[in-house]
Amino acid sequence: MKTFLLLGLAASVAAMELSSDTWDEAVAGKSGSRILVHALAISFRYNVHYRLIPKMKKEEIRNLTKHTTSLQWKNRDDDNTVVWHSDPFDQGACRAAYIGFYTDKHPTQDAGKKCVVKMFLDEICWSEDKWESDMKGMRKCRQLAKEWNEFGLTNKEIEVVTGEILKQTTGQKHLIGQYVLVEPFIEGNYAKWNSNSGWVDHDALSVHSFCHWTYHTTGGEILFCDAQGVRHPEKYIITDACIMSNKAGKYGMTDCGKEAQLDWMRSHKCNDFCSSGWCRVSGASKRKAVRRSTYEWEATDVSTA
């Protein structure tokens, strides 16, 4: 593990972050607590089941519980460990997200626990290796979050959600054989704090400093960005962790490579949680900063803001 030197930050500094109703993030002093990341990481592969239901509104699907779902998540006569609804509650350019539930056949998750099932829209991406690249990025982010939390620089820890890759073996014929990513459902108000092209919302938040620090502590090898998830008083819960590296695509479709990584750093504005001793990149970004995630094949389309 690299030795991290926090330069230019006095122990007496008490920089704080504004939340909706109170200042609730602080740079820890000498007695700052060490917080361990809780990562929801699983590596099992099990059968899954895809069931058709009448079309529902996205918000109705998102709010389903084990008591209101029409899916059978217990007392099944098969080995399916996850069941999910056929209508997505969210969809991007390449993937759709579905509400599902772990069944009583799952070896580690509680029966009836809510989950999110992510599926590629394009059949050419249905192979397991496409998800493995994403999982590698999530695991790397989880490792960095653990180190960040152990320094105790703020009163908000970073928790990284990862999941498991499953192969569909039953259900609609044209979907059998595809691989999907399953993650525990995160309760709370979902938000996006920055993107992988440099867009930022509320630039005073400590999560942006965590992104900067990942670039610094790895010597510029990788950068966590595209930060999104749920923010609680005591922690950030990060989903869909994006890592940008020196090689586009190494950590999944949103790893746009070195130039995109440098442009993100050029557009980053340090806040009270950043240290003056951290690595920086000078100059102006060559890319337009947009809220949505940018994919590696789009990264060559460079335009000014």
Please render the helix and strand layout as text.
Layout lengths: L15 E3 L4 E4 L20 E5 L6 H5 L19 E4 L4 E2 L3 E8 L11 E7 L7 H24 L5 E4 L3 E5 L10 E6 L5 E3 L13 H12 L5 E3 L2 E4 L3 E4 L3 E3 L13 H10 L38
Parallel strand pairs: 3-4, 3-9, 8-14
Antiparallel strand pairs: 1-2, 4-6, 5-6, 6-7, 7-10, 9-10, 11-13, 12-15, 13-14
Gist of the model:
This protein is an alpha+beta fold and 305 residues long. The protein has two domains: 16-36 and 146-159 and 189-298, Protein kinase-like fold; 47-131 and 162-184, no CATH class. It has helices at 58-62, 128-151, 206-217, 258-267; strands at residues 16-18, 23-26, 47-51, 82-85, 90-91, 95-102, 114-120, 157-160, 164-168, 179-184, 190-192, 223-225, 228-231, 235-238, 242-244.
What features would you highlight for this structure?
alpha+beta, 4-stranded mixed sheet, 15 strands, disordered C terminus, 305 residues, 4 helices, Protein kinase-like fold, 2 domains, 21% strand, single chain
